[in-house]
Design goal:
about 110 residues, alpha+beta, three-stranded antiparallel β-sheet, about 15% strand
Length: about 110
C-alpha cells in the first residue's frame, strides 16, 4: 500500500531544509517541555516512523537554541529537559510563515 507512494524515494533526501529543524523543535516545545529523546520520539510519531531525526542533529540544535536563549534547560531525573522561553515564543511567532511552510511540508508527508 505505501510502497507506491514511496517508490523512487531517495534515502539521502533531506527531510528538512537547512535550519528548519530548529523551528520544528521550538514548535514541539511550545506544547510541552521535553528532553532530547522525547523530541526524537515525538517526531517519529508524527511521521509514523517514516522519519526519525538523529541525535546528532537534535542535540546540536537544542544547544544552538539554548545559546540563542530560545530554550532553557533544567536537570530533571538526570536528564536535560528543555522549555521554550519568551524569546523562543517571540521568535516562533515572528517566523509564522516559515513554520507554516515547514508544517505544510510535514503534512504532505
Amino acid at each position: 500500500m505505501f510502497r507506491r507512494h514511496f517508490e523512487g524515494f531517495d534515502r539521502r533526501y533531506r527531510f528538512f531544509g537547512k535550519g528548519d529543524l530548529k523551528y520544528v523543535i521550538l514548535d514541539l516545545l511550545k506544547d510541552k517541555p521535553s528532553h532530547g529523546y522525547e523530541i526524537i520520539r515525538d517526531l517519529e510519531d508524527r511521521f509514523h516512523g517514516l522519519y526519525s531525526p538523529s541525535a546528532g542533529s537534535v542535540y546540536p540544535t537544542l544547544q544552538l537554541l539554548e545559546d540563542l536563549d530560545y530554550v532553557k534547560a533544567a536537570e530533571q531525573d538526570g536528564k536535560k529537559v528543555y522549555t521554550i522561553t519568551e524569546s523562543g515564543l517571540k521568535f516562533l511567532k515572528e517566523s509564522e510563515e516559515t513554520v507554516g511552510r515547514i508544517k505544510g511540508h510535514m503534512h504532505d508527508w
